[in-house]
Amino acid sequence: MRQEKKRVFSWLMMLAMVFSFILPGNQFNVQAEDILTVNADGYYELGSADDMLAFAQKVNAGEKELNAVLTNDIDMAGKTWTPITEYAGTFDGQNHKIKNLTFDSTDQNQGIFGTNIGTIENIADITGTYTENHANIGGLTAINKGKVVNCHSSVKIICNKNGGYVGGVVGYNITDTALVEKCSFEGTITIPADSTVSSAYIGGVVGRQRTGKPYIIGCVNRGTIMNENAKWMYIGGIAGYADDGNIWFSYNEGTLQAASTETYISGIACSAKPYNCYSVGTLKGGKCYPIAPLFGTNNYYLSDAEEQGARTDEEFKKNSMVNALNALTTSMKGFVPADCMFEQSNGYPALVWEGKGIEVTPVAVKGATISGDVLSGVTLAAAITGENDKEPTSVSYQWQVSSEEGYEDIADAVYPTFALPDTEAYVGKQLRVVVTGGNDSKVISEPTSVIGKSDKLRVTEDKAELQSFASPILENCQLTLPDYGSNGSTITWESNKPEVISNEGNVILPAADKVFVSLTATITYNETTDTKTFSVQVQSVDYQDALADSNAIEFASKTIYEAQTLDLPIKGKNGSEITWTSDKTDYITSEGVVTLPATGTQRVNLTATITKNETNVTNTFWLTVYSTDKGNVTRDKDELSIQTDVREAGKIELPAQGKHGSTITWTSNNEDVIANDGTITLPESGVVSVTLKASIVSNATTDTKSFTVKVCSKESQTKQVNVTFTLVGDDVHGANPHKAFYKWIDGYKTSYTEADQKTALNLIDDAFNEYGFQRTGSNSYLTGVITPDGVTLAQFMNGSGSGWMYMVNGKIPNFGMFGYKLSDGDEVKLYYVHSHQEVNADPIDTPVQTITLDTTEKVLTIGKQLQLSATVKPSYAANKNIVWTSSNEKVATVDENGIVTAKANGKAVISATAQDGNGAKAECTVEVQNPLEPVIQYLRNTAVTEPTVGSTGGEWAVLSLARHNVKDVAWYHYYYDQVVNTIKVTGNKLSNTKSTENSRVVIALTAIGADPTNINGENLLQPLADYDFVVKQGINGATYALIALDTANYSIPQVNGVDEVTTREKLIQFILGREIKDGGWAFGEVDESTTPDVDMTAMVIQALAPYYKTDEKVRESVDRGIQVLSDLQGDNGGYAKTSIGTSDTDRSSESIAQVICALSALGIDAQSDERFIKNDHSLLEAFLTFYDDKTGGFKHQQTNEEPDLMASEQAAYTLVAYDRLQNRQSGLYEMSDAQCMYICADNEHKWDSGKVTKPATELEKGIRTFTCTVCGTTKEEEIPQVVKKDDPTEATTEVTTEATTEVTTEVTTEPTTEATTEAPAKVNYSKIPLQTGKKTNVIQINGGKTKIKKATVSNKKIVSVTVKNGKLQIKAKKKGKAVITITDENGQVSKVTVEVKKSVPLKKLSLNKKKVTLKVNQKEKLVVTKNPVTAVTKLKWSTSNKKIATVDQNGKVKAKKKGKVTITVKASNGKKARCKVTVK
User: Fold this and answer.
1) How far apart are CA 270 and CA 208, in angstroms?
2) Mean pLDDT of 1060-1088
3) Helix boundaries (H) for 557-695
4) How many CA atoms lie within 13 A of 870 on its CB side?
5) Contact, 491 vs 525, CB < 8 A?
6) How far is CA 884 from each of CA 881, 893, 1087, 1401, rounded to the nearest angstrom?
7) Upper half-sphere CA count for residue 752 (Cβ side, 13 Å)
8) What does the pLDDT look like over 131-161, one tens digit per residue?
9) Using CA of residue 436, residue 440, residue 441, residue 445, what is the dihedral sign?
10) Which residues, including other chains, have CB under 8 Å from residue 1003's CB and lie 6 or more apart?
């Protein structure tokens, strides 16, 4: 009875609404047409209050694009105004006023207009009073998405409750096209003390300016904003809050005041970055910012303080203030109207449109000077003078920077000041400023001196140059701790544990264990100091051995089902002793004896203590020991599976016995459909979910496992579920195509089969796809809808309660759309509401809506376990039970409690599904041990210990390791030597029949950073320039030649005697010309019967991948090839057939490997791309089944017992290609990031003791040659000339030094070890000259390896000596000669003669290299040699073309682009040395 009464009442309400909407509306429409006049231009002429009311109701009836003009001032006294809800036309006030507006409403979006998406302009003034509860309020419009131009307001706004966005002209300025220009406010906005308003955004002109580029240009506030309550909010003179939007050429003269200290008050706007604005208004209370918290650019405020932007009253009234405010950046030019610029008035600067300007006599600018320290990080200021000592008018500034061509403008440097960034940007350059003024005058200042580095920049750069130390440190060594930075800063070091690492960097391994040492560098330049701390781990030898032995301990399984004795090692391979302790010796003793528990399981922690001398390392392993019965039940449960989708009557197999002896019985919760013995009776209709519970029993141990089985009636498999969907927008939001309650999708109809069990979300997505809509949010919670034209309607856009809701058959489900299963006749409605609290509809019973797992992705190694925890929502769901399943129990299993156990390599999806059958589900992807690292190690350490030139055991192994960035210089160098040795026999053509031999070697050499164009003088690319030779090998030759040429974008060499020269275009056309009719490629010639081959198709796609995006024919051909590869893929994810039409064979891992490489080259994920997932098996998962976890290699076929070398090599570079894709690195064959890997880095060479290759004589110097024992690199050191003991002449030599740009006082050299007759062999110089007052530390013994213990001098008046930390420092005091006697730490004595001179001029300058060849982005350090070594000079480095290569003042060259360039180092006396650099 109650329901019947409710229905009658509803019908009465509907009738009342119909009459109230239809009858009055018809009467008014007649009246409106009679009242309103339309002019010849189609504009409605509004001359009275009644006209305004009539026009408003006409627009609100749906005619939003009507245009109107005011023909008189409009007095709204005594009238009740209802806002024009949404306006899209042009409203021109023709400079008339609208007076005495009155609002007293609780509706949101209050103003003359609710939302403007059109143009409103030229309203001279708006007056009136707005009171009560308004969410968004604007004196003119609450929301603006269009243009508001030349509109002015003096309204009085009183916010009592919901303040929202409140502005004197516009409440909320939103969308990228919104513009507020030449508007002003002179009224009041008040938040009374007893109001409940909080978190409001209140501005004199605009309440809030939304993120994007809605502009506010040329606006003024003279009004008053008063917040009298204690709540926090944002208040601004122009805008309350601006979301970084642009506010240009505006100013505030009004009063902004707050009683709350939590209110943010900004002269212009909070959060904005205003440009060319000023504020002279009054700011009181709250947290005040004169302009904005971020201040912006070129803004000013009234203050006597000496701060950024502060100007006195007198300064504000000068013409110079107008000049400064009118500076235009590049983005402003052409956008800021001329009448929005500032001009001089009788007071503060005014905007031109205000008409307050006074006539100013033009004054020319006569002079300009720049003041300020010429250093990075300093602000320079331009001071100008005018004609006849008057202030120049119409001044503009443009700062310029010196360049090779002269001077060029600095973008947007148009202000009287210019802040130099504290970076290298302008260092070494000069600035000047170009100033224009009245009477078309123009002056250019004198340039500044060369800009230098600030002390802060010097310290910052030198700090950044300090590199971390390799950690852990495994041997005694000497760390290189720089004493000076490249910018001249001094660097001192302090260790917190000097007994391990001294302050000088001497490392002494601890006797035991490991130690963490903090090394702190203090970088100082003049008074500026900074620090940088490095943490270094130093391991004792014993710790290293013990740790290695600890890591070597492994257990085959950590789940124990049988009584046994575990093999617990007691000695490590590195000599350590291993002892074991158990926390539960009843089950596993310390000797490893396992006793099964009587019942259940026991978790036992076995701890290994690995001892080497005084060092101990512990490693704990936890093992689970099962009782016999528990083990049987657990294993049988893990392995139990049944059919879960039934569509035929009969019987499903329900195992009665487990493999491990447990008994299994079954119970059904619906025996009418599935009996306990598995007999199926199909339901007459619909789809029934049946829960089958297995009870697994072994003696007294019992466990259960439940399965949800979907049983589909015959009817359900054909029966159509017909459903309807409607999408309804809101009534006030947005520009067209939004309409008032417009049904954006009206009655979309579709059907599914009942067995499909589609949800409301499926329906919504299908409708959206059909109509071009998009949704945002999640499957359970829709946050927004995007229309086909890109307009977004999202939650909260129309208030805090607004958003999207869905309804089914007039009822509202209390769960997500994906949780509602569709039934025939369902009508689903997705609609936008202003407040969810206003919705009144019956609910739908609540199933489980969402399941959330605490972990969604996890990587495990075999044997590890993971406890998953599930959260079910809503908490009041009727049935919250969860069913756990694994997508691949061979990879990972999961028990009823969510404990996951990793079984084998691969990936498995662990699912938690709601037992109530509504479909709620959560997943965790478990990846078990990626075999990339093991297969790399298998190649390096087992299969290819010495790489050769060959298709196996050579290039592909080299490619794999190099592209995975494996560091092993000796291994790569061994391969490089093999290539050199091969070329000595074959020349640059490695095979007379196969061009792929050259291509393969080029690929490998490029990968290790070698130059294939110059291997022992031979160019391996030349044979590939012979097109006939390349294509003689067919598509294979063309494919690999193209790959090789593109590895480093090599230029094809010019070769004589070749009939046809190879080009990339020819290779591509050759490959495309051999495409099979329906797509794909094959080995050999192509005819009508040719079918595509998996391997060849995949290899071709790899070669064509670089051209996929730029060549349409390539793209079409590759897309066909991808489809072929997808079609050939088998149900198990791999390739059972190598080509279409062939018979089934045991698939090979190599075919899958090539396809994964091809997909990776195109950026396609072989694990997740739907085209390559068959029967829930991905391509990558199928590939990993060939992995042999015993060896780390890969098998050729599944039936093989041992790994195969070719399969392992291809697997390695395939996994590298996939890994690079996942890490967003360049592709396998895109080697722009390749590094030199076959030659040691400069600081990593291991030099032998050297060999004298040229003895020194009295007439010339000798040479000692050192060879790196790792990479074979050689270096030469000069041996000084032999000097007779009685020879009075000065012997000087060229010694390699790293020069700086400062005057050299201390020189560090790489000393020689050859003997002279003046001193024992161990001292590097027997005589040196030294300039008066200078110091040097050039003298070394045994290349600095032997420390100096003490030194004495024959004449202390001529030189003084000091020995510190084993180093000798000599200081020249006065002219003359003195002999220094040196005693080293071994007691040996050496002597050095020092001649002190007034000056020691440089005689010669040379570089260690005269020619260098580099690749783009490669670097090379040139080392300068001075003769004599102690010559005092400044050095300057330069390049002949910065675009090709640059050089810093330390001689470090960086290649920029292809070409040739000369690097020059020049001394202060004009001596030069040059090096020619070729960049390829």
Assistant:
1) 9
2) 89
3) 628-638
4) 26
5) no
6) 10, 9, 53, 85
7) 19
8) 855 678 999 999 999 999 999 999 999 887 6
9) positive
10) 955, 959, 1040, 1043, 1044, 1047, 1229
Q: Tell me the pLDDT band of 1064, cut-offs 50, 70 and 90.
A: very high
Which pair of structure tokens corresponds to residue 435?
A: 């100033």
Mean per-residue pLDDT over the chain, rounded? 86
DSSP 1024: G
Rounded distance, CA 98 to CA 55, Å?
14
CA dist 1260 and 1279 (Å) reads 9
d(CA 364, CA 383): 14
> Which letter, b or e, does each residue of 875-889 get, where b requires 16 or more Cβ atoms within 10 Å of its Cβ?
eebeebebbbbbbbb
**Closest to 175 (Cα-Cα) out of 857, 735, 761:** 735
* pLDDT tier for residue 1467 given thresholds of 50, 70 and 90: confident
DSSP assignment string, 55-114: HHHHHHTT-TT--EEE-S-EE-TTPPP--EEEE-SEEEEEEEEEEEEEEE---SSBSSEE
Q: How far apart are CA 970 and CA 946, in angstroms?
A: 10
Rounded-to-10 torsion of CA 345, 351, 354, 357: 30
Chain center to CA of 426: 29
User: Residue-wise over 1438-1452: b if at least 16 C-beta within 10 A, else e?
Assistant: ebebeebbbbebbbe
**Strand order of the sheet with strand 1295-1297?**
1295-1297, 1424-1427, 1404-1407
Where do we find the tokens 């999640």?
Answer: 778
Give the residue among 695, 688, 683 at the shortest CA–CA distance from 640.
695
Query: Contact, 316 vs 300, CB < 8 A?
Result: yes
Helix axes 955-963, 996-1007, angle to 10 degrees: 30
- Contact present, 1212 and 958 (Cβ < 8 Å): no
Three-class DSSP category at 1130: coil
CA 1423 – CA 1451 distance, rounded (Å): 7
Q: How far is CA 254 from CA 137, 224, 239, in A?
A: 19, 6, 12
The pTM of the full predicted model, rounded to 2 decimals, is 0.45
Q: DSSP states of 843-855 as a string?
A: EE-----EEEES-
The residue assigned the tokens 């390539």 is: 1114
**1387: Cβ–Cβ under 8 A, 6 or more apart, which residues?**
none
Phi and psi torsions of 849, nearest 5°: -95, -45
State the DSSP H helix or E strand holding residue 1251, giving kind and residue range, or none if neither.
Answer: strand 1251-1254
- Alpha-carbon distances of 1170 from 1121, 1123, 1126, 1181, rounded to whole Å: 16, 12, 10, 13
